Structure formats: C-alpha cells, structure tokens
Amino acid sequence: LLLFQELAKYEDMEDQVVLTEKELLEDGFGEHPFYHCLVAEVPKAQWSNSGQHCIVGFAMYYFTYDPWIGKLLYLEDFYVMAEYRGLGIGSEILKNLSQVAVKCRCSSMHFLVAEWNEPSIRFYKRRGASDLSTEEGWRLFKIDKEYLLKMATEE
Amino acid sequence: KMASFSIRAARPEDCPDLLRLIKELAKYEDMEDQVVLTEKGIREASGRRVGSLVAESVAQVPICSAFLELLEDGFGEHPFYHCLVAEVPKEQWSSEEHCIVGFAMYYFTYDPWIGKLLYLEDFYVMAEYRGLGIGSEILKNLSQVAVKCRCSSMHFLVAEWNEPSIRFYKRRGASDLSTEEGWRLFKIDKEYLLKMATEE
Q1: Parent domain of B22
Q2: Start and end of every N-acetyltransferase domain (chain A) (predicted)?
Q3: How confident is the model at residue A15 (pLDDT cuts 50, 70, 90)?
C-alpha cells in the first residue's frame, strides 16, 4: 500500500488511493485473487546477515482476455523506488513477468502508460512494446459507480 | 422484427454463437484477418486436455480449436471471462427456440487505488437487431453485475473513430480517460516476452 501511494504521488494522484490494507489483503490473498504481485527486495543492511529485507519495488498484474487471441497478462502497476533505479531491478521484474506470461500461455502483455511518461515509454519500446492507442486508435473509457447504479436501477 | 428479447448469462453450448458474434464484431471493426484463433480439425483438438463438458458439446457442433479454447477459457475450472447473451424467439408463434443476437464479454480487473473493476471486453448487437433497446438492457445487466460484485467502476476501450459507440456511452455517464488523463494502451507481444524471459 505504501508503494501504491508512492506511485500515486509520482503520477500526481495521491489523494485518490482509497483502498485499505484490509481490502488489498482480501482481494489479493483471499479465496479468489483479483491480482498478483511480484516484489523486489534488497537486504536491509550490508553488514547484517539477519535476513531482513526491504521491499523497494513491485509489479501488480492479472490475467485478461482477448476474444481474438485468448489469454493476456495485464500489467496494472509497476514501480521501483527512486533511490533503487538504474540497478536493473525494473528489467529483472519485467523478465519475471515475461516468464509468468509464457508459462501461463499468454499471447501478449498489455498495460497503460501516460503519454507524458517518456522515460517509461522509452523503457518499454526498447523491449519491443507497441503503442496500440496511437497505432489503432483505442481510447480507455470509464463509467463510474454513480452512473452504474443509475443504469442498474432504471425501469 | 421481434420486439421481445431476453438477456441471460452465457452457457457452454453458446460458444458457437459467441464465436460467430466475435467474428461479426471483428468485421465491424475491420480487423477480421487478425482473428488468429483459427479453425482446425478434430485430430489437432484431440491432443489437448479436454474435460467431459467439451466431449459432450463436441458431438453437436463443428470442431475448431477456437471454439475449444473459448469453451475452456470461459467455462472451464477457472473462467478467464464471463458473457451475457441477448436472445430473441426464433418464431413469433413458437416459444421454444431462440436465436442469440447480441453479447457482452467481461471480466474483473483491479485498480490498486480503488479496488475491483468490471472490464467490458466486447459488446455487440447484430445490425438487424439494433435500436430495440437490447444494448441498453445488456448495459443495465452489466451495471447490476458490477454493483453486486462491488466494483467501483466499469472500464472499456472504444476506437476513436467509433462515434456512435462513443455517444452511446457518454449518454450513460462515460468519461474518456485517454483524452482526460492521457493514458495510452501498450502491448508487448509474445516474441518479445520470450526474448525477455530467456535473456541472461
């Protein structure tokens, strides 16, 4: 949750993190997980062998479905703390994600990137990513709960 | 034109109709050649692990791997998608048989800031059956599913050129997150995933 808030801060939307720890626990580790996470950790202290680690990065993903090609891996969130960037952690997380995708027989990995986020766009394009919004004209829409309730209860 | 129709959850035996409508939607989106779930013979299909559910349907419908994948992915042990179908009575004077004339494919996604979301993957009503309120009724059903499953929002993609659909959704309260917040959809295809997965 701490890292979600950091990522939200990076994306300038801090006050929109309304999810609680309890919900996060239930939704990811309950009977039916709605998401999966990979975490990157570093040893707490170089001189300590106590085995303690700090989590410095994470990736949240789940499986989606494209009726034309089948299962996809959807990368929802991906973040490495600023102090730990440039060490290959991001690449290693992406490598792990790729292995999950291949193992689970996914045809592709999809994810959103903000158009202003040039470092991330370059990071992904270097690894073979294509921008489907630009190439195929896809736009993401949302219908929020208030409107869903309105439609759900309409006569 | 039939004015009466009904919406219900899809069943395994609906897969042939689902596949038909998926292809019709692909045609509408002018990308029919990209439907890579191709039709192959039963000999290839028999090499796959199939449950008793598949064996039952196999006898009744033409076999193709697209159908089998759709069947297993949606109605197997772990469904990767859910569908609602809209059906109309085949004949006005017969109450028995129905035709599936529309569908919606959805699944649940997750937003780490707000929790569960309902993701609308595909939504299509056959041309001859539009303007009868079928689309609105499907959307109403989807809204009920979202509320029941405690989803904070429903997300979906719309092609920028698809003005009728954009209007349809905006009338119901939809916002364009790509335009408002600058989100772009990216993909990394399997060949690049394999490359990264096996890199030293």
Answers
A1: 6-41+61-175
A2: 8-155
A3: low
Has residue A1 got a pLDDT over 70? Answer: yes
CB B124 within 8 A of CB B17: no
**Chain A: residue nearest B82 by CA?**
A65
State whether residue A144 is helix, strand or coil: strand
Assembly ipTM = 0.82
Of A116, A140, A149, the CB nearest to B147: A149
**What is the model's pLDDT at position B34?**
46
In the structure encoding, which two tokens stand for residue A28, read together?
A: 């990811």
Q: Can you give the residue range of the structural domain that contains A123?
A: 1-152
Structurally, chain A folds into a number of domains equal to 1
The token duo for A150 is 């309105």
Cα–Cα nearest to B12, from B74, B96, B59, B63: B74
Strands A108-114 and B175-176, bridge-based pairing: unpaired
CA-CA distance, A79 to A7, in Å (whole number)? 6
Amino acid letter, B106: Y
Chain B residue numbers touching A140 (CB-CB < 8 A)? 155-157, 176-178, 183, 185
pLDDT at B62 over 70: no
Q: What is the spatial distance between Cα A3 and Cα A153, in angstroms, rounded to a whole number?
A: 37
